[in-house]
Design a protein that fits this description.
Layout: H1 26-35, E1 50-51, H2 63-70, H3 80-93, E2 97-101, H4 104-115, E3 121-124, H5 129-137, E4 141-144, H6 165-175, E5 182-185, H7 198-210, E6 215-218, H8 222-232, H9 241-250, E7 254-258, E8 269-273, H10 276-289, H11 300-312, H12 316-335, E9 348-352, H13 353-356, H14 366-378, E10 380-381, E11 383-385, H15 387-390, E12 392-394, E13 397-399, E14 405-409, H16 417-432, E15 440-444, H17 450-453, E16 455-458
Parallel strand pairs: 1-10, 3-4, 5-6, 6-7
Antiparallel strand pairs: 2-8, 7-8, 9-14, 11-14, 12-13, 15-16
The structure holds pyridoxal-5'-phosphate.
């Protein structure tokens, strides 16, 4: 789909600054894993060879971004850097009210701090885990309405991130009054990093307008989503990613943004919207938790780097390399017979551990077992998206998640094709000894965002 005339993926940049990888031997890794209680969030990063834990906040900044840091204006109020940032976000999104925040979940906390609450329902194509947590902490219900094919991991499909419009209309018809807003996560991170089509964005927008409910984009990967639209939605082939992104934002009333993804920065985010009354409420909450609304928990230099990153991410050569290199990883795994969620997402490839490790039942966390096996084999760090993250305990009874996935998230501009080739080679080896991989049990866990802190042990 995104093939070019050449087979080799050329990273569209030269490397100016490098850092060493963390080489370890198998014995060391065994001990590290034990000490981390089989929770890879507790492994020191310098004991990781290739870190595919997340694409969040792990991007390499450009020379222009490093240069922009020096232009940062650190004034408490009304810093020049804020106005630079505000202009960039306004030009991109078209929204009038722009609130910087330190990362995406701060935007969520602020927004649901006044639109959430008991009795409210927040529908989305799929809520990201922190979004769901912030909705639920407010007392509201987070309702996922993905299209049914999102759950079929075997069929391709261009826009499996879409929202089920029929289901949305039903919800708005029956309990529209308790729905303060609707969220479209672009791309749909929790269900395979699949894109949402412009057609779907428009349709969701139309339904929201009909019931007078605002639509917000969870725009963490807006540029990747825009590029998928360019590749896969006919009438957008000749449009620039920027024009497509602008159109996406134009169909919504606001957005939440974790700039640690497509902002190409290591920390940052924003909340943007048109409604001045909501913006005022948001600023009141922001001042308490994040800081004055012209810096929102960030340094002036962060705002400069974010502003630059939001422009660079829409570069077509960059997006071509980005989407193609993730797709290449997916193809490589499939060549070794590793079942993945098809098609590969924009920022990550998701391995279907339920199939790959069919001998491990959900209550023994097959995806987490695979995460641990991959680290043990070669020091590669990934993350579980399955029953450890989404499983529930109800009166002592375990309710597994619908899926058992291992996510290989690719940091932006960090690894080269040879790193990716190495990951593929390691999977080839694991595929040959998959029956030997054993399940895990939880020894200790907290009720909210369990996966970050849980302690596990092999069974
Ligand atoms: C990362 C992410 C968030 C939360 O952002 P943080 O910057 O990690 O707080 C919210 N939504 C989506 C879709 C994300 O990927």
């Amino acid at each position: 789909m995104s093939k070019s005339a050449w087979n080799t993926i050329i990273e569209p940049f030269k490397i100016k600054s490098v850092e060493p990888l963390g080489f370890t031997d198998p014995k060391e890794r065994e001990e590290i894993l034990r000490q981390a209680h089989y929770n890879i969030f507790k492994i020191p990063a310098d004991k990781v060879l290739i870190d595919l834990l997340t694409d969040s906040g792990t991007a390499a900044m450009s020379a222009e971004q490093w240069g922009a840091l020096m232009r940062g204006d650190e004034s408490y109020a009304g810093a020049r850097s804020f106005f630079v940032f505000e202009k960039t976000v306004r030009d991109l999104t078209g929204y009038r009210e722009i609130l910087p925040v330190h990362q995406g979940r701060a935007a969520e906390r602020i927004l649901f701090g006044f639109v959430g609450g008991k009795g409210k329902v927040i529908p989305a194509n799929t809520h990201f885990d922190t979004t769901r947590a912030n909705v639920e902490v407010s007392g509201a219900e987070a309702l996922d309405l993905p299209v049914p094919e999102a759950w079929n991991f075997h069929t391709g499909g261009s826009f499996k991130g879409d929202m089920d419009c029929e289901a949305l209309e039903k919800v708005l018809k029956s309990k529209g009054k308790s729905v303060p807003l609707v969220i479209l996560t672009i791309t749909n991170n929790s269900l395979g990093g699949q894109p949402v089509s412009m057609k779907n964005i428009k349709e969701v927008s139309r339904i929201c307008k009909k019931y007078r409910v605002p639509l917000f984009l969870d725009a963490a990967r807006f540029a990747e989503n825009a590029y998928f639209i360019k590749l896969r939605e006919q009438c957008y082939a000749s449009k620039t990613p920027r024009a497509i992104a602008q159109e996406m934002f134009s169909h919504a009333d606001g957005c939440l943004m974790s700039a640690k993804k497509d902002g190409l920065v290591n920390m940052g985010g924003f909340l943007a919207m048109n409604d001045p009354h909501w913006a005022q409420k948001a600023r009141e909450i922001e001042i308490i938790g994040e800081g004055f609304p012209t810096y929102g928990g960030l340094a002036g230099r962060d705002l400069e780097a974010m502003s630059q990153g939001l422009q660079e991410v829409l570069d077509e050569e960059y997006l071509k390399y980005r989407i193609r290199s993730v797709e290449y990883l997916g193809e490589g795994l499939q060549e070794h017979g590793v079942p993945i969620v098809e098609p590969p997402g924009g920022h990550a490839v998701y391995v279907n551990a339920k199939e790959f490790l069919g001998h491990i039942p959900p209550e023994r966390f097959p995806a987490q077992a695979l995460v641990c096996a991959l680290y043990l084999e070669a020091g590669i760090r990934t993350v579980e998206i399955g029953s450890l993250m989404f499983g529930k305990r109800n009166n002592g009874k375990f309710i597994p998640a619908k899926m058992e996935l291992l996510r290989l998230a690719v940091p932006r501009r960090v690894y080269t094709q040879s790193h990716i080739d190495f990951v593929i080679e390691v999977f080839g080896r694991l595929a040959k000894k998959r029956e030997k991989i054993q399940g895990l049990k939880i020894v200790e866990a907290s009720p909210i965002l369990t996966h970050f802190t849980a302690k596990l042990a092999p069974v």
